[in-house]
UniProtKB/TrEMBL annotation:
Family matches, as SUPFAM superfamilies: PLP-dependent transferases (SSF53383)
Organism: Actinoplanes philippinensis
Family label: Belongs to the DegT/DnrJ/EryC1 family.
Pfam families linked: DegT_DnrJ_EryC1
Keywords of the record: Pyridoxal phosphate
Top-rank lineage group of the source organism: Bacteria
Name of the protein this chain belongs to: dTDP-4-amino-4,6-dideoxygalactose transaminase
InterPro entries: DegT/StrS_aminotransferase, PyrdxlP-dep_Trfase, PyrdxlP-dep_Trfase_major, PyrdxlP-dep_Trfase_small
Length: 366
């Protein structure tokens, strides 16, 4: 039985292998391990891809979020509103600045932040709202922006899962700031940890760059208490090779999602994902909802289908953030039912048919 992985990183590597090997040789010959021309080139290519003037490479997506938060003035005495059904890093990054995490519920159909709930959670201490572009589609940032008109609150977008996604033709970070992750399994994945911050605001871009290089842009001049969070040359080689293919790969993901949509149409127990009007989705994750999820997941895994859960425990139910308390019925109802099916650009129609077949079998046996 051949396994169908959740994500096939080897298939992606096969497409870029020659470029990556040549690039690694170049970096090693130049010993340009931290920073350097390759990093600068990737930053300007990623900025252009994002339609923004500034992209700053950092060590991972969690740092990207933390530095973006700090750059816009999030810190002790302030609050940041974010959805309860995100990966822990969104909350962690806020906590690391010394600010207070304020959770809100998600929309029951798209799992994106509930805009009304976010606006209702604003207090005089709110400095930022952090919508998460979960699974690869943009949250309704436009609606959030409308609701925030006249208030000094920044939208810090968690774009870790949405490289290349647009809403009404616009990408993330267009009039705020966005943080992304290049964790290997992401749509644009490095060969280790990496991340970036994108923004149109030059002052924020400079602060992020300063914070990420020990608080100073000139060697041994430290103006802020910063951190060491830099993108390295080897990762930039990989990211440049993959960025050149990302638009095509995202198109292949959309085709794969459309195939699942048809294949699963006949399975009554399966709730298929919903795309918001105006969104171009990049399908980082294809998330369905099923009854008896844990049993179905175990059966799929036993049958060689690499399904998974994103995410099984809402933030307020984790040990780390249990003290926040609160009740978020949509996030809590989704957590035991959501199921991520294998998706990646190179997945074949045959592989998807087998996933659908195994899912049908698992549902009837569970
Ligand atoms: C929604 C979300 N936010 C933040 C992160 C953190 O990124 P990283 O793992 O690169 O620190 C991730 C990915 O892991 C993510 O999926």
């Amino acid at each position: 039985m051949t396994r169908i992985p959740l994500v096939d990183l080897a298939a992606a590597h096969a497409e870029v292998a020659e470029e990556v090997e040549a690039g690694f040789k170049r970096i090693i010959a130049e010993t340009a391990f931290i920073g350097g021309a390759e990093v600068a080139a990737f930053e300007s290519e990623y900025a252009a891809f994002s339609g923004l003037p500034h992209a700053i490479g950092v060590a991972n997506g969690t740092d990207a979020l933390e530095l973006a938060f700090r750059a816009v003035g999030v810190g002790p005495g302030t609050e940041v509103i974010l959805p309860a059904n995100t990966f822990i890093a969104t909350a962690e990054a806020v906590a690391r600045t010394g600010a207070r995490v304020v959770l809100v519920d998600c929309d029951p159909a798209t799992y994106l932040i509930d805009v009304d709930a976010a606006l209702a959670a604003i207090t005089p201490r709110t400095r930022a709202i952090a919508p998460v572009h979960l699974y690869g589609q943009l949250a309704p940032v436009d609606e959030l922006r409308k609701g925030l008109a006249g208030r000094d609150i920044v939208i810090v977008e968690d774009a870790a899962q949405s490289q290349g996604a647009t809403r009404h033709g616009l990408g993330s970070g267009v009039d705020g700031i966005a943080a992304t992750s290049f964790y290997p399994g992401k749509n644009l994945g490095a060969y280790g940890d990496a991340g970036a911050v994108t923004t149109a605001v030059e002052e924020w871009a400079t602060t992020v760059r300063t914070l990420g290089s020990h608080g100073g842009l000139r060697k041994y001049h430290h103006d802020l208490v910063g951190v060491n969070s830099r993108l390295d040359g080897l990762q930039a080689v990989v990211l440049r090779a993959k960025l050149a293919r990302l638009a095509g790969w995202n198109e292949q993901r959309r085709a794969a999602a459309a195939r699942y949509h048809e294949l699963l149409a006949g399975l009554e127990q399966v709730v298929r994902p919903v795309t918001l009007d105006g969104n171009v989705h990049v399908w980082h994750i294809y998330c369905v909802r099923v009854p008896n999820r844990d049993d179905v997941l175990a059966r799929l895994n036993a049958a060689g289908v690499g399904a998974a859960i994103h995410y099984p425990i809402p933030v307020h139910r984790t040990g780390a953030f249990a003290d926040l308390g609160g009740s978020f019925p949509n996030a809590e109802a989704a957590a035991p039912q959501i199921l991520s099916l294998p998706i990646y650009p190179q997945i074949t129609a045959d592989q998807q048919a087998r996933v659908a077949e195994e899912l049908a079998k698992a549902l009837s046996a569970a």
